[in-house]
Amino acid sequence: MDVILKKLEDVDWNNAQQTLDQQGYAIVENVLNADDCQEFIEGFENPERYRKNVDMERYRFGKGHYKYFKYPLPDILSKLREHVYPKLVPVANQWMRNLKLDINFPASLSELHKKCVVNGQLLATPLILKYTKEGFNTLHQDLYGDVYFPIQAVLFLNKVEKDYTGGEFVMTQQVPRAQSKAIVLRPKKGSMLIFTTNYRPLLGKKGHYRVTMKHGVSEVHSGERYTLGVIFHDATT
Questions:
Q1: What Rg, from alpha-carbon coordinates, does the chain have?
Q2: CB of 229 within 8 A of CB of 64?
Q3: In sequence order, what are the beta bridge partners of 74?
Q4: Prolyl 4-hydroxylase alpha subunit domain: from which residue to which, for each copy (predicted)?
Q5: Domains of the chain
Q6: Which helix (H) or strand (E) holds 95?
Q7: What string of H, E and C letters represents the secondary structure of 118-173?
Q8: What is the pTM for the complete model shown?
Q9: 226 Cβ contact list (under 8 Å, min separation 6)
Q10: pLDDT above 70 (res 1)
Q11: Mean pLDDT across the chain, nearest whole number?
């Protein structure tokens, strides 16, 4: 079996699903090895891989650069996206039921992409992000169109405190009529963080209610920070 597929098959997905449902995020360690991480980092400067390069400061998204891959995606990224998506569908659909929303996500990534095509969303959304000293990413949501999957992932390509300092992954959880809760994470190199794209249910005294989630990156103090963003739905631009 392919190495990346073997690693993903060995994941305790029941535990990951439960953690994701309870917390809004879950961390799976050792998804990428050191060679995988280095290959993506070295490929950052290869323009043949990408369809779009974004200077975050220009658009007031933060300070850093990110590049959207074009189809066909690198093999590891494609396999990871196709294999992880169906593991997340049960959580996504349960969230929709909890919130009494008439939304049902298909079992396969290819079926989700058919829905994207109908809505004019044809472009790849996986991306690689680079931050240097003083780089950061403002709080945001990765939606890209009317068709969007409520869960996404990010993979960490270098080692915090060795390759960079600062640069924590930050999420905020906005409970209605209350202050936001901040969640700050520092996953290990090669880890995959699975998290909420836009909103998720929380159980209250009167049933489930919706909480809005956003994510970003705190300021990098030194070094270079690289990550891979894995969004499952496609984009219009």
A1: 17
A2: no
A3: none
A4: 23-233
A5: 3-230 (2.60.120.620)
A6: helix 75-98
A7: HCCCCECCCEEEEECCCCEEEEECCCCCCCCCCEEEEEECCCECCCEEECCEEEEE
A8: 0.96
A9: 37, 40, 41, 44, 128, 129, 130, 157, 158
A10: no
A11: 96
